[in-house]
Specification:
The chain is mainly alpha-helical.
């Protein structure tokens, strides 16, 4: 997978101030999240970031590299969150609780990153899709699998369950929750199932989701 680890920025980008780097990435994230990869406009990104298109191409080799960089920033948020929870010396149920609370918090604070994630399903470039799926999903796959394996070693989770399959099902549940807190369509869906005030009932969602996970997996 070395191809996925190549450097996405040029040296000229590395020489920018942290504030300028952040502005460019945030501007690109907003454009890609709202327009999708194919329809995102490099001219718009450059203009809103206060730079020329020529300068933007001095920082990134291509539109695809800029897009991948915005995804990379999102995966750093995901990685940092999971690394702060999964290795902790806590019971499985408590780790699930911490994960769901993190989802509730970051989905609201990082709405554009979640929206960007939802746009990935419409990317038509198969090579790009392979890059993105590896960049994003391999993190969740490995860490959730380890979470299940640890629970099995401790006797908290049934030994007859396949860790990879359980990790996949957990991730599907967590993705649905992410979208429910960050996407207008999924929020309306959330309300249809659970009432108009569900967005204000985080404790209820947290408790019920933890109960569902632990009861499904418990030894």
């Amino acid at each position: 997978m070395e191809a996925y680890k190549r450097k996405l920025t040029k040296k000229t980008f590395d020489n920018l101030s942290d504030a300028k780097k952040l502005l460019i990435i945030q501007t690109a994230t907003h454009e890609f999240a709202s327009q999708g990869f194919d329809h995102a406009n490099i001219n718009t990104i450059a203009e809103k970031a206060g730079i020329s298109v020529g300068s933007l191409y001095k920082y990134f080799e291509s539109k695809q590299d800029l897009f991948l960089m915005t995804i990379h920033q999102g995966t750093e948020v995901l990685t940092n969150t999971l690394q702060s929870i999964i290795p902790a010396d806590k019971p499985f149920a408590e780790k699930c609780r911490d994960l769901i609370q993190a989802i509730q918090k970051t989905s609201r604070e990082q709405q554009q990153l979640i929206q960007l994630y939802s746009e990935l399903t419409s990317v038509g470039n198969s090579d790009l899709v392979k890059q993105l799926s590896y960049e994003i999903e391999s993190i969740s796959a490995s860490m959730y699998s380890e979470l299940i394996k640890e629970g099995q070693r401790k006797g908290e989770i049934r030994a007859d369950l396949d860790p990879a399959m359980m990790a996949f099902l957990m991730d599907n549940l967590f993705i649905s929750l992410q979208f429910s807190y960050s996407s207008e369509y999924y929020l309306q869906r959330f309300k249809i199932f659970l009432g108009d005030d569900i967005d204000d009932k985080d404790a209820f969602v947290l408790d019920q989701t933890v109960r569902f996970l632990t009861s499904a997996l418990k030894n």
